[in-house]
Amino acid sequence: MIDLWQHLTTRGKVLCLATLTAAVAAPLVADRYLLSVLILVFYFAYLGQAWNLLMGFAGQLSLGHALYLGLGAYTATALWTLFGIGPWIGVLIAIPVAAAAGMIVGWLGWRFAIEGVYFALLTIAFAEFTRIGFDHLQITGASAGMFLSVSSPGSDKWWNLGGGPLLYYYLALILAASATLLVARLRRSPLGYRWLAVREDPKAAQAAGIDIFRAKMIAMLISASMTAVGGVFYGFYYRNLFPSQVFDIGRSIEIIMAPIIGGLGTVFGPVVGAILLTPLGESLTALMQHFGINTPGAKSIFYGLTLMVIITLQPSGVWPWLARKLGLDRSRT
Predict the structure, then answer these.
(1) d(Cα 327, Cα 11) in Å, to the nearest integer?
(2) How many CB atoms are closer than 10 A to CB 34?
(3) Could you tell me which of 154, 124, 9 has the C-alpha nearest to residue 63?
(4) CA distance 48 to 69
């Protein structure tokens, strides 16, 4: 936290404190719909930080991060539905499950020198294989989905994540803020510098004595674990899971959009990207519903067009440009 604070200019510190204060106080004035949009903003900022660690810092492109989201969601919700084990214990089990999956993907990819677009295809394949598996797994409802009961004993208690929107709002805010602080800490750590060396020039990093495989695996394990926590949040917030939704590549695309638009490899990029992109996407959905328009994939098309515009105008993302124009960050990260 201290290191992150030192790299902000006075204007950046004021804006950071104002934004955090506004976020904490927002439920006092926000209606239920606005609160739900803000929950999604924090949620995607958190997931964006998780993916940013792997791609933005370590330079490893994963297009199948829905794998870890889905495993986290299904693990915790299945434990609650089948055995009555609460989410606070369920998340402790979901994390190693997702981390193990990430370790398998990473080991198969990097041990056999699968890099770049081929590694990205490998991550998509694992997410798709898992989706097919859960489509036929009867214990979790198969393709019919899994639903969390709202009438079971203890399901309405806050410690079982059974509270209303206010609980999920502050939980999402804590997740996003904690992830940002963690990313800032890792970015300036020896491990973070090793990731950057691997991202910029793997051969030079190896020549300098960096264990490239180990550095990549640590990034994968942290990223997968963080994404699994987001999956637990997803499962209990929506209270229903379908393999075709949670493991879909479209879910992975949603995860990666905020850091790409905000600024890959930066600390605040995923947050800025989520603040910009999520309200626009939800506004588009609301407008389509208002006018009775039912166009499958409209949000994906919108995200694609937005990405094209941002890449054309600001290839490094919105945050570096914003920090430079407004003088917010000395290092522009």
Answers:
(1) 7
(2) 14
(3) 124
(4) 12
* Contact present, 276 and 318 (Cβ < 8 Å): yes
pLDDT in tens, 34-62: 999 999 999 999 999 999 999 999 999 99
What is the model's pLDDT at position 282?
A: 85
Residue 146 phi, psi (nearest 5) = -115, 135
pLDDT of amino acid 289: 81
Percent of the chain with pLDDT over 70: 95
Q: What is the 3-state secondary structure (H, E, C) of the chain?
A: CHHHHHCECHHHHHHHHHHHHHHHHHHHCCCHHHHHHHHHHHHHHHHHHHHHHHHHHCCCCCCCCHHHHHHHHHHHHHHHHHHCCCHHHHHHHHHHHHHHHHHHHHHHHHHCCCCHHHHHHHHHHHHHHHHHHHHCCHHHCHHHCEECCCCCCCCCCHHHCCCCHHHHHHHHHHHHHHHHHHHHHHHCCHHHHHHHHHHHCHHHHHHCCCCHHHHHHHHHHHHHHHHHHHHHHHHHHHCEECHHHHCCHHHHHHHHHHHHHHCCCCCCHHHHHHHHHHHHHHHHHHHHHHCCCCCCCHHHHHHHHHHHHHHHHCCCCHHHHHHHHHCCECCCC
- Number of C-alpha atoms within 13 angstroms, CB side, residue 58? 29
Reference 124, options 62, 49, 44; nearest CA is 62
Does residue 332 have a pLDDT over 70? no
